Amino acid sequence: MSGALAITQDQQEFSEQQLAALTQLGVTNASKGDLALFFNQAQRTGLDPFSRQIYMIGRYSSRDRAYKQTIQVGIDGFRQIAHKTAKQCGETFGMEDTLWADNKGRWHDLWLGNVPPAAAKVTVLRNGQRFSAVAVFNEYAGFTKDGELTSMWASKPALMIAKCAEAAALRKAFPADLSGLYTADEMSQADNEAQPPTPVVIDPTVPPTMHQKPPKMTPPPQAQPELGEDKLLNRYRQMMSTILQESGVTSKQTAGAVLSLLVGRTVAATADMSRDELKPLIENGSHTAARVREFVQQTNQEAAKQADTTPDEDVIQGEIINDKEEE
């Protein structure tokens, strides 16, 4: 940072000129407390808020029905802070190769699959100590209102989830420098929340009855599915089918049996399952896959055991023929 906008070490808060610049950059609806926290983080990390190395964004919370400010840093900012801190402390710093997990919980050091990885794992090395973090894809991925993955998450799923795992691992390794800071990639799920209701603008010079016609007294409409619900349901069904196939399910009969076990009621296929039934199974894909594999293994063992105890048909026929010859 340089010039009139530079934050000095003896400065206590943003100046009027700095606040004006932040407003131009989109920092709005922030309380004095939010701004004080933002100032402290920028000063502590040495990142420049005016070049957006560190920035604050307001997100609407449908639960609280209000905007909440979140301080975010790019993954490059996290790396810069980590390198700077390690150098100042005379410590070694590095990272192991990134790993990605499939739906069976197996780790790979290269992801070339046509489907997103189930998770990513990053391990940070600081002065001989290891700090690992795992980021599960469904806990971080951003979705559109139609239930589709957002552009970056759809085109670069392995990279996006790896950056989330790296940010979490760096926070573990450098808590004094990175606590309370998050990357935009980690906050993609927060953007999935509902947007604030559009305010109704009323002209005070016009009588209330002139703003709009009285509403017609009509029966309330029947509940309609949310926008994109069908697409989201189909996506869940496809993902569940993938888990079944990768876990060794090879027949419709076995699929129906294991799905019935998972949901606690009789179903023949994923088409018989609701979104509420599918969602927890998909979000806990590794656990679901483990249960499916266990079921398939038990089924195969029982089938093999039954085959060993069933008399061979040729032997039975031969015994009957021999008996007749003896007669």
UniProtKB/TrEMBL annotation:
GO terms for MF: DNA binding
Annotated GO biological process: DNA recombination
InterPro entries reported in the protein's UniProt record: Phage_lambda_Bet, RecT_fam
Polar residues: bias regions: 299-309
Region feature (Disordered): 299-327
Protein name in UniProt: Phage recombination protein Bet
Species the sequence originates in: Alloscardovia omnicolens
